[in-house]
Amino acid sequence: MEFANIAVTSAKVDNKEGLAINYDLYTPISGGNKEFPVIIFLHGFKGFKDWGPFPDACEELARAGFCVLAINFSHNGIGDGKTEYKRLDLFEENTLSSDLEDVKAVIDALQAEKITSAHASLNTDEMGIIGHSRGGHTAVAAAVEFEAIHCIVTWAAVADYLNRITDREKKDWEEKGYTEYQNSRTNQMMKVNKTFYDDLSQNADKLIALRVAKYLTIPSLFIHGREDETVPQTDAEQLHIACTAKENELRFIANAGHTFGGAHPFEDDHFPKEFDELLDYTTSWFRQHLRG
User: Fold this and answer.
1) Can you say how many angstroms the Cα of residue 189 is from the centroid of all Cα atoms in its chain?
2) How would residue 32 be classed by pLDDT, with cut points 50, 70 and 90?
3) Residue 66: which region, alpha, beta or left (left: phi > 0; alpha: psi -120 to 50)?
4) How does pLDDT run across 113-144, given as a tens digit for each residue?
């Protein structure tokens, strides 16, 4: 069933450190008592919930009959804005453990009815999760860690974040205590402290997607672009092979790069062909496996 009208509620919840997790909740507008399954959407490294076509994709999923909670990780550097990095002090302290804790915080808030909508009832007993790139890596860890998650789709997910750490980054962390990344959109230099690497190394058996994928028992769909210039398609293959879930599929999208044709800002009337295919696969998967 498609819903012509949707509502978007923007607010925030605090994580255990008292830092804000800003979110947008996309819901169908329903006049009945029907409950809609919740899907949590996770952005990637140097990403944010309002990047490119992500908001439009969340709207389409809501039209398909889901409540979609798109979050900004507390340490993603955006702060209280939408697209500009105003809290690089927080970005500097980001870790994969803090991202995972943020997912726990929003699950807890959903189940405690601290996140609600005036337009639809939320079914929080069986939730889905989507993650793009590093967010896909975290989504796998979250799906294993939190029993409320019953279905997962990853978009261009990283399989093993430790394998992405370069010799330059390690040298920077050892010599300076931080490394830096240039944001190609804003030209800002974005620091990441050595605590990121220490956390990843010390908690690898809990955080690394490829290590925990063998414990995935829920329906799992791994989607990747054939022409991904950032994360090789072999990452999706590795996750698919490691996953032991009965419903476990791998989908490749021809001619698609890391963002499946999407760019920021996104002002087109229609999704790029590759992104449209990505969304079709995602919607079909949740309709099949997340009925609420």
Assistant:
1) 23
2) low
3) beta
4) 999 999 899 999 889 999 999 999 999 999 99
Domain containing residue 56: CATH number: 3.40.50.1820
Q: Is 178 inside a domain boundary?
A: no
User: Does residue 189 form part of some domain?
Assistant: no
The model's confidence at residue 3, banded by pLDDT at 50, 70 and 90, is confident
Do the Cβ atoms of 22 and 80 come closer than 8 Å? yes
| H or E element that contains 286 | helix 273-289
* Structural domain includes residue 264: yes
Look at residues 96, 136, 106 and name the one whose alpha carbon lies nearest to residue 282. Answer: 136
**CB-CB contact of 97 with 106 (8 Å):** no
Predicted TM-score of the model (pTM): 0.97
| Structural domains in the chain (count) | 1
Instruction: Indicate whether 268 belongs to any domain.
Output: yes
Virtual CA dihedral for 29, 32, 33, 36, nearest 10 degrees?
Answer: -40
The DSSP secondary-structure symbol of 31 reads S
> Could you tell me the residue range of the domain that residue 101 belongs to?
6-160+196-289
Tell me which residue of 197, 212, 245 sits closest to 93, measured CA to CA: 197
The answer for residues whose C-beta is within 8 angstroms of residue 184's C-beta and 6 or more apart is none
| pLDDT tens track for 205-240 | 999 999 999 999 999 999 999 999 999 999 999 999
